[in-house]
Write a structure and sequence with these properties.
The chain is α+β, with helices and mostly antiparallel strands. It is built from 6 helices and 10 strands; from the N terminus they run αββββαβββαββαβαα.
């Protein structure tokens, strides 16, 4: 009797396995539990690639006018200081010109090593940034001193506006933070300064990153006020009490 029950149980299990296999074969979209998907480049409706997420701690990339100190521990006679030209090239002693604009320092080291392969045997190269583009932010619009400022420490949007001379009387208290996420994409964030300056939602006062731009628009009333005659009280002109 036990043998019959065991056989029946075995047949039931085999039937369930066969049924599952048939369902999987009929549904080509089903995936194995450990199956990996190949990455797909995301695009929007216009076919333009979507911006990629920025790295948390991106390396500095070499810019035009940066000054580099290139040293050769085993061949000090080749030590040199070079400036990145407007076209992105540097002129190397005895090795010609190489393009390094847009590279990180480790990538530039590899490029310079390759340039000296025919001159030195297994060259050892060190590259140090002597002068480089300082981190900056820009404040524009209705502020006292619009312009570009060095980002020497952690600043919030409200602090950046204070550095730029504060809000003008014509300013709107909803400002915009523009942050570049790629060469052709900006992330735009609206920040309500009115609440922040009153101590509300202070955690929404974003910390600036290098290259950020803060735009302070003109208030709607300020735009309208241009067309109100100076001899007319604004309250009466708007239908209010004189």
């Amino acid at each position: 009797m036990k043998t019959i029950r065991a056989l029946l149980h075995l047949c039931t299990c085999i039937g369930l396995v066969l049924t599952a296999s048939m369902l999987t074969a009929q549904n080509p979209m089903s995936k194995a539990p450990n199956a990996k998907e190949l990455p797909v480049n995301a695009t929007n409706s216009s076919g333009t690639p979507e911006p990629q997420l920025q790295k948390r701690y991106p390396r500095y990339v070499i810019q035009r006018e940066d000054v580099l100190l290139i040293s050769f521990p085993l061949s000090p006679e080749l030590n040199q200081t070079v400036t990145v030209q407007p076209d992105g090239y540097i002129d190397l002693q005895s090795a010609g010109s190489v393009h390094i604009q847009g590279m990180t320092v480790p990538a530039a080291v590899k490029t310079i090593k390759h340039a000296y392969v025919g001159i030195l045997n297994h060259p050892i190269v060190n590259v140090d940034l002597q002068d480089f583009q300082k981190p900056f932010f820009t404040v524009t619009g209705q502020v006292g001193k619009p312009g570009r400022y060095e980002l020497r420490s952690d600043l919030t949007v409200a602090e950046a506006i204070a550095v730029a001379g504060g809000l003008e009387s014509t300013a709107k208290q909803q400002v915009f933070l523009f942050r570049r996420t790629s060469k052709s994409w900006f992330k735009v964030e609206k920040i309500n300064l009115k609440d922040i300056l009153k101590g509300k939602h202070v955690n929404e006062d974003a910390i600036l990153k290098p290259g950020d731009m803060v735009f302070v628009p003109e208030s709607t009333f300020s735009k309208f006020r241009k067309y109100v005659p100076y001899s007319v009280n604004a309250g009466s002109y708007l239908g209010g009490a004189p």
